[in-house]
């Protein structure tokens, strides 16, 4: 309970103030901010993959996305757990809260051949996972295009 003192009153009684004390709310908000700042980097996949860049508009990702990663040595991982190519669909079926109508986010290192990427997509499709999104780094439009060689001048 807050009390205000005014010099005009000759009474010894204090008048009650009906204003909310916001100091505890600010403390709670600062604690929540610190918790979210610490927890946010922990929610990402921590596999060292050199993703290609894209100038496409970023889309909203779900709360708990399921990442399938193709590493440079062509091994597969679901999240951070390595899986064999033959066990990919069975391992996806074992992921909690995963269903065939949810999106699978496919990450591939830029050194992975296109045929390998298509092979993994074919494995997912044959297993019933037809909702696949490809993951890339956000880039500046035109910055990821390779430099064109100038024609030789005679």
Structural commentary:
The protein is of the alpha/beta class and 154 residues long. The strands form three sheets. The chain has a five-stranded mixed beta sheet with strand order 6-5-4-7-8, with helices on one face. A two-stranded antiparallel ribbon has the order 1-2. Strands 3-9 form a two-stranded parallel sheet. It is built from three helices and nine strands; from the N terminus they run ββαββββαβαββ. Residues 144-154 have low confidence and may be disordered.
Question: Which secondary structure elements does this structure contain, and how are they paired or packed?
Answer:
Elements (H helix, E strand, L loop, with lengths): L1 E3 L10 E3 L5 H17 L13 E2 L11 E5 L5 E3 L2 E3 L4 H7 L9 E5 L5 H13 L5 E3 L2 E2 L16
Parallel strand pairs: 3-9, 4-7, 7-8
Antiparallel strand pairs: 1-2, 4-5, 5-6
How would the global form be characterised? elongated
Runs in which pLDDT lies below 50 for 5 or more consecutive residues are: 144-154
The Cα radius of gyration reads 27 Å
Distance between the termini: 89 Å
Which terms would index this structure?
alpha/beta; two-stranded antiparallel ribbon; elongated; disordered C terminus
